[in-house]
Design brief:
This protein is an alpha/beta fold. Helix content is 40%, strand content 17%. The protein is globular. The model has no long low-confidence stretch (mean pLDDT 92).
Length: 251
């Protein structure tokens, strides 16, 4: 499948050793009327991407949140779906997640078969994503919903072999995630091991709360660092976190 300009930009960053910063927003945890102000914060901070999605989406306000954000910002909006129902043409692109670290066939391919007609007709730029869950010290929604164990935090070799499998299967990117509210963020050693041994972009998220950790992850080789929980608690952190990602120009 042909890729689009968002993915081409990610590939360019990977080749140039540059990093980007993405904010993850769960539409269940925001007020749609606040998205205008949130967009202004992201614009002023230099955020590169907005990821939208959640494990359940109980409030049914995904579309309106995206529309209100895009009314104030040109930052690309990328869907980070917890299930096939979270596909909307309001966004710019879709991370088509396949849980390659798990053993649940539904999240490896089953839900993709069910969602394929909707995704094909959506007009979205589709970015095939090898999704890897790493142990963050607390149970995650993904592990619970998928009945899958995460990769141990100290097993960089397993993470690398899993990432290689995804790359060899033709995934466009690898996304390593220790989950929302992780106590133990993914180590720089694991990030460096994976990033330096795969040719595709690497997203890293989970348990990232400080500019120092953003910088360390970028320095270790993350193409995109994703922060969600910390910004939910304090949106004013966005500027410092985004600027930390700009300090690293090469691995």
């Amino acid at each position: 499948m042909a890729t689009g300009k968002i993915y081409e930009g990610l590939v360019a960053r990977k080749k140039q050793g540059k990093s980007a910063f993405a904010v993850l927003v769960d539409p269940d945890k925001v007020i749609p009327d606040d998205m205008h102000r949130f967009a202004e914060l992201c614009n002023n901070a230099g955020v590169d991407y907005l990821l939208m999605g959640g494990s359940l989406l109980m409030a049914h306000q995904l579309d309106i949140c995206i529309e209100r954000f895009k009314a104030e910002s040109d930052i690309p909006v990328i869907l980070f779906p917890g299930n096939p129902a979270q596909v909307t043409p309001c966004a710019d692109a879709l991370l088509y997640l396949s849980l390659i670290s798990g053993r649940n066939p539904e999240l490896l391919i089953g839900q993709h078969v069910a969602s394929a007609p909707m995704v094909k007709s959506s007009g979205l730029e589709v970015i095939s994503t090898g999704y890897i869950i790493v142990d963050g010290g607390v149970p995650t929604s993904v592990s619970y919903m998928s009945h899958s164990l995460p990769i141990p935090a100290n097993k960089a070799d397993i993470a690398l072999c899993t990432a290689w499998a995804g790359e060899l299967q033709g995934k466009h990117i690898i996304y390593m995630d220790s989950g929302s509210g992780a106590r133990i963020p993914i180590s720089e050693e694991m990030i460096h091991t994976v990033s330096t041994n795969v040719s595709i972009p690497l997203f890293v998220g989970g348990g990232i709360h400080t500019p120092e950790k953003v910088y360390a992850n970028c320095k270790a080789g993350a193409t995109v660092v994703v922060v969600g929980n910390a910004i939910e608690r304090d949106p004013m952190l966005i500027r410092d976190l985004a600027q930390a990602s700009k300090q690293v120009t090469s691995i």
